[in-house]
């Protein structure tokens, strides 16, 4: 347990100040092609990389640890993802703190024991919450905003070992095989960490990315597209209703966005449907086969519904307006087949030949996305590049 405690206390000392997008994080090289980052850097956990790979990490000798308590603040709208990780014995004993369903989850491996516990208040409300992890005897204790959150007691039949060697710490990822986790979860988190006090260790951290993305000063729920990436889904994961209906709903200020909002196609074909917005002309254009529809009225919700014989487009405004296009071999043949075997891109135009390549990327915030009546989690995309999946700058 002392090992875990030290892994936590020795954790991560960040005093993270909020910054607007565009403010860089200072760092310098260390001769190993790794950028060294101060433990006090602002850290955005959702930066694009391999989803299990830590954003940054450090190693410290156990003999240097003087504190058994770590505290930091976290802010997110994301219900699931990795916050931080610590281990000893090169990963034989380890600790992971994450969110799942919006609440904290601790997973601990020590000697012959494996423990997982989850509980406490939901933290994915977009507000800053202070978390403190400490080791008290045989217990690891997590407090949230000064109140009791989680408490884990562990006692092994193995003789107590004298701690020695190194402690590895990682932020936003883990250093063990994910199959070793007791409870599997989605690791990528659209969230920020700040004001950390990690065991009073001031060693620099090594970043696994060239530049750390900063955090927005204020955020609101939604998915933010910075104009450099998109999210791609296999349409086969969205079942067609018994009556053949396919329904896509989008919420947001469409006249504040710019670029391709969504596109649908199947391999090697021209896009079946493209939805584009122009921030200069304040025009939203939907192209479906040979048909084209221009929308200049102000609206904050758009519903696109494929029926067996028609495509319906609803602009939800003070005076709702529905436009209907007949579906025929002229407009687009076998659209149901395209939906069953195609790709749906949110935030860009899929390539005609290579459907994993996007262009005409969207800049702006989609406040909510639903497909077949269910909220779309961009963390589940086949390809997800430079998109903040659960938050937008406010």
Automatic annotation (TrEMBL):
Pfam families on file: Laminin_G_1 (PF00054)
Domain Laminin G: 40-215
Keywords, in A-Z order: Disulfide bond, Glycoprotein, Lipid-binding, Repeat, Secreted, Signal, Steroid-binding
A cellular-component GO term for this protein: extracellular region
Major localization class: secreted
Record's signal peptide: 1-27
Molecular function terms from GO: steroid binding
Domain of life the protein comes from: Eukaryota
Cellular compartment(s): Secreted
UniProt key word NADP: no
InterPro entries: ConA-like_dom_sf (IPR013320), GAS-SHBG-PROS (IPR051145), Laminin_G (IPR001791)
Quaternary context: Homodimer.
Function: Functions as an androgen transport protein, but may also be involved in receptor mediated processes. Each dimer binds one molecule of steroid. Specific for 5-alpha-dihydrotestosterone, testosterone, and 17-beta-estradiol. Regulates the plasma metabolic clearance rate of steroid hormones by controlling their plasma concentration.
Identification of the protein by name: Sex hormone-binding globulin
Organism the protein comes from: Channa argus
